[in-house]
C-alpha cells in the first residue's frame, strides 16, 4: 500500500502530531518502522506499522518548516482465501477520504517454493514479526515406504541465521525437539553452523509417515536490505521398489518492502522585538536593559542585546523555533531575577515577528519602626496609635500600632522607586495623641507626656493681725525638689498665688512633683498643706527679773521669796528666788504666741512677804521697806537700720517733771540706760514720779513707753512720671487715663492724666516710712486702656497700640479640573513685605487658608500691612484679589506630526496634501505638507488653555486624497493605498480523460504566501474559478501578491501558469519479472540472457539476467504516464536464445528447450471411418509431448 500525505493548509504541525491509518480486518500490516527522512537525511518522524494500523509520529522538525509533505509504502497480508474464491471490502483506512474497493482473489496463503511427490518446502514472513522468516520442510508427503534412511540437508542463504531453539519436528506426531526426536529413535539432527542442519530419518521409522520440519530464521541487519530470502535444500531417499533419488531445490520468500520519506520548506526568518516596561504601565518604558538570547537547548545567540531609549531592542533573522531570553543587567531601580527564563516561539507563520513584552517591577523596600513611650507607664496611655506612611510627603498608608506587637510596626512591599526610576522618600508621621508630644527619629517614634498644669494656693496668717506682719512674702515653687520659680504674695491679691503654664511631665514622660515652700518669715512658723500655707506667729521668750530690796539690807529680810509667772493671768510656773542667784529669776523657753498667733501676756507676781511693799516693774520686783528706786530703759530704732542713724543720743531723767539727770546712750551700751539710787519716796512718803525724755534727733520721731524709747524714721517724698503713646497718633487714643499710686502694692491714690498737662503726673506729700520706720515702696499702675498694652519704666508709662487680626482667603482653580493640578500649594503671609508664615493649602479643606492671631500693630503702634503670596505653581498664572488667590492654567503647546504613506511608493502619490488644525473641533489653521519637508508639519506657539484654564483639544485632519484611506494616530497621519482586484483562472487536465480523474479539485488562494480562501473547481463550472472583491493593498499600502495553488490530487502533477492550473497524470511504476527455464537443467543452458524493456513498443532499456540474481530482473522508477498524462505501455522481450522458445506471461519469461525428433508408429482407427484432420492430430501430439 502506498500513502501520500501533506499538512493542512494554514495549520502548523507540531512535534508529537500523529497520522493514524486503520487497516480493514481483511488485511494485516507487516510490522516495522519506517523513518520519514528527506534527501539530506533529516528526520521528520517515523511510521510504526502494526498488524491493525499504521501510526506516524512527527518529530520537532515539522515545527521548523512549512508545507510538510511525504509518502510511505508498506506491505499487507490478505486473509486466507480459497482457490476460486474472491473477497471484496471497502476502506478509507479510517480517514475522511473516499472509500476504495479492495479485492482479494484466492488462493492466498503459503509461500513460494518447489514441490515434488516426495518433498517440498515453503517459507513466509508473518505480519506480527517481520524480523524473522518461518520455514517449513515437508518429507515423505505421500507417506511411502522407503528402503533407505531419508537424508535432508537444509541450508539458509545470506541475510539469515538459524534459530536452533525454534526447530520442531512433527507431522507424524506432536511436534518435538531435536533431542526428543533422537531420543525416541526417529533419527538424528545435526546443526551446520548457524545457517543449516542435516536430518537423518531412520528408514524403519519413516515408512508410511510424513515428517514436517519447522523453524525460524532471524533476519540480520544486512538481510533487511535484501529483496528476498533464499533457502536451499537436498533430499536423498529410496522409495521401496524404486531407484535411489537425490533431489535439490531452492525456495525464496520476498522480503518485506517498506519505506518512505518527507520534506518541507524553510519558513521565512523571524524577528524578535523585546519591549521593556514597568509592570502594570506599558507607557513607562525602560531603556538600558540588557538580555542574553538562547535557543531552547541553551545555545546563546549573539552577544548581549540592550534596549534603546524607547525601551525596545530587535533581533532579526531568527529561525522558527523555541527560544528564551534572560535579563542580565538593568537600571539600579529594577527588581529582576537573572535566572528567570522568558520563553517565546518564532512561528513559521509569524511573518511580522514576535513582540515580547517583558515587564519589570521596581525594587521593593520596607519601613519599620518602634514606638517608645516616655510616660512612666501612664495609666491613660492609649491602647493603640495610628502611624501614617508618607511617600514623598503624601500619606499612602496608615497602620494601627499596639502593645500586642511590642509597639513595633512594619510597612512592607513598598516600591523603592517610582516608574521613572526616582527613589521614593518614605517618612512616618503619628496621628496626634492627646496629652503627648510626638518626636520622629528616622522611623522610630517617641511619645512624651505633654500637658500643662498649675499650682495655686492661699496664704493664711495666724497672728491676730499682728502689726508687724510683713506686707509681702515670697513663695518658692519646687519641681522635683528644685526651686524653679518664686512669687511675691501680698494682701492685694488676698494672699492668693498661682504658678501657671507648668510642664506636667519631664522629657521621659515622668510626672513632675510640684511643691511649694515659703521663704523664711521672721517670727512665724510656716506650715504647708497641699499648696496652702499657714503662718503662725511664733517666738520663744524669756521672762526674767530681779528682786530688789529697799530695806537697807534689813536683817529680817527673808532668805527666799516665791515668784509666780502668769500667762494671760494664769499661773503657769513658780520659782524660788534667793540671794544665792542674786535675787534674779528667769523663766526660759516660754511661748510668745498662742496657736492663733496672738501674743501671750506674761506677768510676774511675788507671793506676799511680810513687812515689805512689793513693787513690780516689768519683771523686776522691788520690795521697799523704805528705800530708793531706779529708772532704766532701752532705746529702740525703727529705721530699717538706716545708715544715717546717730551713734549716740541723750536721755534726760525727770523727777516729778524736772530734769534731774542726763545720760548718753549708744550702741556700745546696747542702747540701754539706767538712772539708779533714786529716792523712792519723798519726805512725805509719796513716791517720786520718774520719767525719761530723749533729747531731739533729726529725722526721727520719738516715742517713750515707760522708760523705753522708740525712734521711728519720719520723712516725706513724691512720685512723678510721664505718659508716652506708641500709637502713631491714633485717632481713637483716649483723652485721659487713670494712674493708680500703690504703696507697698496697695492703691492709696488715683490721678487723672491728660494731654493738658503734657501727659505728666505727680503724687506729693507721701510718707516715706511706715510705722516701723521701713521705707514704703511706691509703684504706679495704669488702669487698663482698651486696645493698648501698658509698660512701666520706673514711674514712666508707655502705651502701645495692640490688637489681633485674622487673614483668610480661598484658592480658586481655573483649569478644568486638570489631572495634573497639584494636591497642595503653599501660601506665604507677608508682614510689611516680609514673609512671616507659610501655610499648606489642600483640596481636602476646600482650598481655604487662615492665618489667625496676628499682631495688628508693631512695637511703635503702627498698623502692620499684611499680604498673601502663592509659591510658584508650574503651568499656572496666579492672581490675588484681597486675600483670595485664583490660579488659571496657562502654557503654550505645539502640534507636530508626520505624514506616512503606505502605498509602496506609488507613482501616483500626490506631491502635496493639506492638513487642518482643529481647536475644540474648529479649524483654525491649515498647512500644506510635501516631500520637500519630509512630509512633516508643525503648528507652534499654540495656546494650551482658554481663559478659564480649560485645556484646548487640538486635532489634525487631512483634507481628502483620492485613492487613499487616511488614519490619524495622535497627530501623525497615515495614508494607505486602497483598491480591490480579482483572481480568475482555468483548470486543464492532461490525463487522457482517465476515468479516475476526480470530479472536483480545491484551489487555494494565497495572499503574500498565506492561504486566505479556497474554492472547489469542477466540470460543472467548466473547470473555471474566480476569487473576487480582493483587497489590492495590505495595511502598509503595499500591493498584495496573489497566487493560486491546487490542493494535492493523488496521481497528478500540478503546474501553475499565472492563475491557470494544469494537472498532468504522474506516477512511477516498477516492472519486475523472473526467468524460468524448462530444460531439465540442461548443461548447455546459457549463463546469461538479455531482456529488452519496451515503452510503447520501443526498447528503452536492456538488462542482463543471470543465475547470480536467481534469474530475476527489475526495471525501477519508471514514469507511468507521458507528458500528456497518457499511460505508457510497458513490455519485456527476451533477446533470442538458441535452442529455446521464449514465452512471456506478464513480465515473466519462460524459456523451453526445443528440438526436432522423429516419432514412428501405426495408427489404427476404431471410429467407423470418422473424419479427422491432420492439424488435430498434430495438436494432440504436442499436448502429449
Automatic annotation (TrEMBL):
CDD domains assigned: CollagenBindB
Domain SDR-like Ig residue range list: 2-77
Coiled-coil residues: none
Keywords: Cell wall, Collagen, Peptidoglycan-anchor, Secreted, Signal
Main localization (coarse): secreted
Domain of life where this protein originates: Bacteria
Ranges of residues in domain CNA-B: 367-448, 455-536, 543-624, 631-712, 719-800, 807-888, 895-976, 983-1064, 1071-1152
Residues in the signal sequence: none
GO molecular function, one term: collagen binding
Domain Collagen binding: from-to ranges: 118-242
Topology term for the membrane: Peptidoglycan-anchor
Gene Ontology BP annotations: cell adhesion
Keyword Signal: yes
Domain SpaA-like prealbumin fold: 280-350
Subcellular location: Secreted, Cell wall
Protein name: Collagen adhesin
Amino acid at each position: 500500500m502506498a500513502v501520500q500525505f501533506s499538512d493542512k493548509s494554514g495549520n502548523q504541525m507540531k512535534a508529537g502530531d500523529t497520522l493514524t491509518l486503520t487497516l480493514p480486518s481483511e488485511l494485516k500490516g507487516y510490522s516495522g518502522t519506517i523513518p520519514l527522512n528527506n534527501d539530506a537525511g533529516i528526520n521528520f518522524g517515523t511510521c510504526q506499522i502494526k498488524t491493525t494500523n499504521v501510526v506516524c509520529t512527527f518529530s520537532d522538525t515539522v515545527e521548523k518548516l512549512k508545507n510538510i509533505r511525504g509518502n510511505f509504502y508498506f506491505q499487507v497480508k490478505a486473509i486466507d482465501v480459497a482457490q476460486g474464491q474472491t473477497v471484496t471490502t471497502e476502506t478509507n483506512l479510517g480517514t475522511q477520504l473516499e472509500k476504495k474497493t479492495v479485492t482479494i482473489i484466492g488462493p492466498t496463503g503459503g509461500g513460494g517454493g518447489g514441490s515434488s511427490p516426495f518433498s517440498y518446502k515453503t517459507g513466509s514472513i508473518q505480519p506480527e514479526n517481520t524480523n524473522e522468516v518461518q520455514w517449513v520442510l515437508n518429507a515423505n508427503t505421500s507417506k511411502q515406504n522407503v528402503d533407505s534412511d531419508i537424508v535432508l540437508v537444509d541450508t539458509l542463504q545470506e541475510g539469515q541465521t538459524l534459530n536452533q531453539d525454534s526447530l520442531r519436528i512433527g507431522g507424524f506426531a506432536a511436534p518435538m525437539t531435536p533431542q526428543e526426536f533422537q531420543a525416541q529413535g526417529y533419527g538424528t539432527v545435526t546443526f551446520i553452523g548457524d545457517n543449516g542442519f542435516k536430518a537423518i530419518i531412520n528408514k524403519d521409522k519413516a515408512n508410511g509417515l510424513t515428517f514436517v520440519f519447522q523453524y525460524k530464521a532471524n533476519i540480520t541487519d544486512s538481510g533487511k536490505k535484501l529483496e528476498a530470502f533464499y533457502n536451499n535444500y537436498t533430499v536423498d531417499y529410496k522409495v521401496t521398489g524404486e531407484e535411489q533419488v537425490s533431489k535439490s531445490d531452492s525456495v525464496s520468500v520476498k522480503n518485506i518492502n517498506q519505506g518512505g520519506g518527507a520534506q518541507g520548506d524553510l519558513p521565512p526568518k523571524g524577528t524578535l522585538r523585546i519591549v521593556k516596561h514597568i509592570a502594570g504601565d506599558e507607557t513607562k518604558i525602560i531603556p538600558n536593559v540588557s538580555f542574553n538570547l538562547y535557543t531552547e537547548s541553551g545555545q546563546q545567540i549573539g552577544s548581549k542585546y540592550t534596549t534603546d531609549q524607547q525601551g525596545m531592542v530587535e533581533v532579526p533573522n531568527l529561525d522558527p523555533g523555541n527560544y528564551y531570553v534572560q535579563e542580565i543587567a538593568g537600571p539600579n531601580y529594577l527588581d529582576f531575577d537573572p535566572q528567570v527564563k522568558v520563553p517565546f516561539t518564532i512561528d513559521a507563520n509569524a511573518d511580522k515577528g514576535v513582540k515580547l513584552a517583558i515587564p519589570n517591577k521596581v525594587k521593593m523596600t520596607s519601613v519599620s519602626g518602634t514606638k517608645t513611650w516616655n510616660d512612666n507607664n501612664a495609666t491613660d496611655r492609649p491602647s493603640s496609635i495610628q502611624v501614617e506612611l508618607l511617600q514623598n510627603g503624601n500619606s499612602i498608608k496608615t497602620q494601627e500600632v499596639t502593645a500586642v506587637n511590642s509597639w513595633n510596626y512594619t510597612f512592607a512591599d513598598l516600591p523603592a522607586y517610582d516608574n521613572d526610576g526616582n527613589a521614593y522618600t518614605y517618612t512616618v508621621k503619628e496621628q496626634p495623641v492627646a496629652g503627648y508630644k510626638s518626636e520622629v527619629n528616622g522611623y522610630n517614634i517617641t511619645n512624651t507626656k505633654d500637658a500643662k498644669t498649675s499650682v495655686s494656693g492661699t496664704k493664711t496668717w495666724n497672728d491676730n493681725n499682728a502689726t508687724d506682719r510683713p506686707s509681702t512674702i515670697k513663695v518658692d515653687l519646687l519641681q522635683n525638689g528644685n526651686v524653679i520659680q518664686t512669687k511675691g504674695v501680698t494682701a492685694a491679691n488676698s494672699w492668693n498665688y498661682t504658678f501657671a503654664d507648668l510642664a506636667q511631665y519631664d522629657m521621659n514622660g515622668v510626672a513632675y512633683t510640684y511643691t511649694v515652700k515659703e521663704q523664711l518669715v521672721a517670727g512665724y512658723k510656716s506650715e504647708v498643706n497641699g499648696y496652702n500655707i499657714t503662718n503662725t506667729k511664733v517666738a520663744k521668750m524669756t521672762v526674767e527679773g530681779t528682786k530688789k530690796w529697799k530695806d537697807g539690807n534689813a536683817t529680817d529680810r527673808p532668805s527666799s521669796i516665791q515668784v509666780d509667772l502668769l500667762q494671760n493671768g494664769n499661773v503657769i510656773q513658780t520659782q524660788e528666788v534667793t540671794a544665792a542667784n542674786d535675787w534674779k529669776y528667769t523663766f526660759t523657753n516660754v511661748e510668745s504666741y498662742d496657736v492663733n498667733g496672738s501674743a501671750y501676756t506674761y506677768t510676774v507676781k511675788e507671793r506676799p512677804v511680810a513687812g515689805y511693799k512689793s513693787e513690780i516693774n516689768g519683771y523686776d520686783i522691788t520690795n521697799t521697806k523704805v528705800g530708793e528706786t531706779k529708772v532704766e530703759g532701752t532705746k529702740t530704732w525703727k529705721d530699717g537700720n538706716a545708715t544715717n542713724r546717730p551713734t549716740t543720743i541723750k536721755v534726760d531723767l525727770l523727777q516729778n517733771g524736772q530734769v534731774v539727770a542726763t545720760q548718753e546712750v549708744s550702741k556700745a551700751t546696747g542702747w540701754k540706760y539706767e538712772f539708779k539710787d533714786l529716792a523712792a519716796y519723798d519726805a512725805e512718803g509719796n513716791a517720786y514720779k520718774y520719767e525719761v525724755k530723749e533729747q531731739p534727733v533729726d529725722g526721727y520721731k520719738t516715742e517713750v513707753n515707760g522708760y523705753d524709747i522708740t525712734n521711728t524714721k519720719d520723712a516725706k517724698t513724691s512720685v512723678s512720671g510721664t505718659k508716652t503713646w506708641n500709637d502713631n497718633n491714633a485717632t481713637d487714643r483716649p483723652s485721659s487715663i487713670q494712674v493708680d499710686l500703690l504703696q507697698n502694692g496697695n492703691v492709696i491714690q488715683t490721678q487723672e492724666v491728660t494731654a493738658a498737662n503734657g501727659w505728666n503726673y505727680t503724687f506729693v506729700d507721701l510718707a516715706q516710712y511706715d510705722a516701723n520706720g521701713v521705707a514704703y515702696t511706691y509703684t504706679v499702675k495704669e488702669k487698663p486702656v482698651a486696645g493698648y498694652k501698658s509698660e512701666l519704666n520706673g514711674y514712666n508709662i508707655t502705651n502701645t497700640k495692640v490688637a489681633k487680626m485674622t487673614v483668610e482667603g480661598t484658592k480658586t482653580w481655573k483649569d478644568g479640573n486638570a489631572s495634573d493640578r497639584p494636591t497642595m500649594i503653599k501660601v506665604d503671609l507677608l508682614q510689611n513685605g516680609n514673609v512671616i508664615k507659610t501655610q499648606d493649602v489642600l483640596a481636602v479643606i476646600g482650598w481655604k487658608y487662615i492665618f489667625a492671631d496676628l499682631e495688628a500693630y508693631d512695637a511703635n503702634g503702627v498698623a502692620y500691612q499684611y499680604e498673601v503670596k502663592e509659591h510658584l505653581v508650574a503651568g499656572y498664572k496666579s492672581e490675588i484679589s484681597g486675600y483670595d488667590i485664583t490660579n488659571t492654567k496657562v502654557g503654550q503647546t505645539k502640534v507636530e506630526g508626520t505624514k506616512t504613506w503606505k502605498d509602496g511608493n506609488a507613482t501616483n502619490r500626490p506631491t502635496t496634501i493639506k492638513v487642518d488644525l482643529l481647536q475644540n473641533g474648529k479649524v483654525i489653521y491649515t498647512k500644506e505638507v510635501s516631500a520637500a519637508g519630509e512630509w512633516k508639519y508643525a503648528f507652534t506657539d499654540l495656546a494650551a488653555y482658554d481663559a478659564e484654564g480649560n485645556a484646548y483639544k487640538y486635532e489634525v485632519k487631512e483634507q481628502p486624497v483620492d485613492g487613499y484611506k487616511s488614519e490619524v494616530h495622535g497627530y501623525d497621519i497615515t495614508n494607505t493605498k486602497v483598491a480591490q482586484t480579482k483572481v480568475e483562472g482555468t483548470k486543464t487536465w492532461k490525463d487522457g480523460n482517465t476515468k479516475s480523474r476526480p470530479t472536483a479539485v480545491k484551489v487555494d488562494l494565497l495572499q503574500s504566501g498565506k492561504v486566505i480562501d479556497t474554492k472547489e473547481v469542477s466540470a460543472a463550472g467548466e473547470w473555471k474559478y474566480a476569487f473576487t472583491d480582493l483587497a489590492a493593498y495590505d495595511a502598509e499600502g503595499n500591493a498584495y501578491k496573489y497566487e493560486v495553488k491546487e490542493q494535492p490530487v493523488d496521481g497528478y502533477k500540478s503546474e501553475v501558469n499565472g492563475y491557470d492550473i494544469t494537472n498532468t497524470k504522474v506516477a512511477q511504476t516498477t516492472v519486475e519479472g523472473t526467468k524460468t527455464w524448462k530444460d531439465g537443467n540442461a548443461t548447455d543452458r546459457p549463463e546469461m540472457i538479455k531482456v529488452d524493456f519496451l515503452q510503447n513498443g520501443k526498447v528503452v532499456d536492456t538488462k542482463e539476467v543471470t543465475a547470480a540474481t536467481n534469474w530475476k530482473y527489475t526495471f525501477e522508477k519508471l514514469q507511468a504516464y507521458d507528458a500528456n498524462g497518457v499511460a505508457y505501455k510497458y513490455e519485456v522481450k527476451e533477446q533470442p536464445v538458441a535452442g529455446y522458445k521464449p514465452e512471456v506471461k506478464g513480465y515473466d519469461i519462460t524459456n523451453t528447450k526445443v528440438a526436432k525428433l522423429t516419432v514412428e508408429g501405426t495408427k489404427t482407427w476404431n471410429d467407423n471411418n470418422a473424419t479427422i484432420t491432420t492439424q488435430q492430430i498434430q495438436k494432440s501430439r504436442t499436448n502429449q509431448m
